[in-house]
Amino acid sequence: MPRTVWLLVAARAINRLGAFSLPFLTVLISTDFGASAGTAGLLSAAFGLATIPSRLAGGRLAARLGRRRTIVLGLTGCALAQLGIAAAGSLPVVAAFAILLGLAFELYEPPSQAMIADAVAPAERVRAYSLLNAALAAGGTGAGLIAAALGRWDLRWLFVADALTCLACALVLRIALPADGPLRASARRGAGGQPVRPWRDRALWAVFAAGTVFALVSMQIVVALPLTLGRVGFAPADAGLLFTTSAVTVVAAQPALRLRRLAALPASAALALGYTLMAAGLAGYAVAHTLPALLAATAVWSLGDVLILGRAFSVVADLAPPGGTDRYLAVYGISWGIATTAAPVTATQLLARAGVTALWAGTAGLCLALAAAQLLLVGPLVSRTPRPRPAPAKTAAPAGQGPR
Questions:
Q1: CATH superfamily of 1-182
Q2: Major facilitator superfamily (MFS) profile domain location, by residue (predicted)?
Q3: Whole-angstrom distance, CA of residue 129 vs CA of residue 325
């Protein structure tokens, strides 16, 4: 992989290592400021909503300010907002900084993902994005341990430590990434000089819809798994062991992406296989009553996750016209903001009204529906949609010959 890819992957792993404060935002609001659980939940939802315009702004700023500047701006903004949360003395101040954190939170993603897309050949994008996913998983394995240590001391120090990792990443990437600048107006247009309009791309809409459902499933796992364990006789904290198992599986499975048969699969078939593996693993949660069974189910759905994330970002990057990679990835990425806002509601309501078995069986069924939709609807639409290509470069006439 090119040096740029390794820099972004390493920085993301370090940043992820410190990204342990957000799960404790509602706890901090409740314990330090006496807010009700409902108020704390609303503030967390406000953070999730703020990440949606943040992602879109990241795509636009990358074109107008430059990718490196946008990355540094996003990381620095996150650090300042987290320091504000740590120092806040009242609930309104915490709420304001939580929303500011959401507005800065996703600025990093579109330019970094676009830099990866441009740094490697199209055939290598799946492995490059999967490597980024593995870095996030690897960083997440240590994040819980750091959170457990600092959280016992004072929850505010979690936000201070998270801010320090953001500033460290911003400094490293500011120094190490190649300098770039704003794209010229002509470069911000697609092939043929037409403006880049991702919302008018039917193929992107189809990929976005599937990605939103996948993101909802992923976020429901995060929200519902600790609650599920408490209902079936385990400690909710045992979810940490399952999430660590998932991270280890994601990292260990990376070499499999280089297997010839797997690499040769069309994107639609690979995504459908990934959704099917996720369905199998989540169905295991519906019937598992022992820790080994829960661990096995976690490993299975994590293998599906390995197949999906790298392919999905690669498909979006391939859909984008020249000069539009940042915008396309920004639009696709807001699926995670929607899921972050909706998953706490859907997961808790399903668990309360239908129970553990129905929650996970229904989520597995949703993954199977995604697999069918990928093969029957999304994949054919993407393959039928003509993609604009860059205009061929003009070549100079050979020496001694003029134009005819």
A1: MFS general substrate transporter like domains (1.20.1250.20)
A2: 4-391
A3: 14
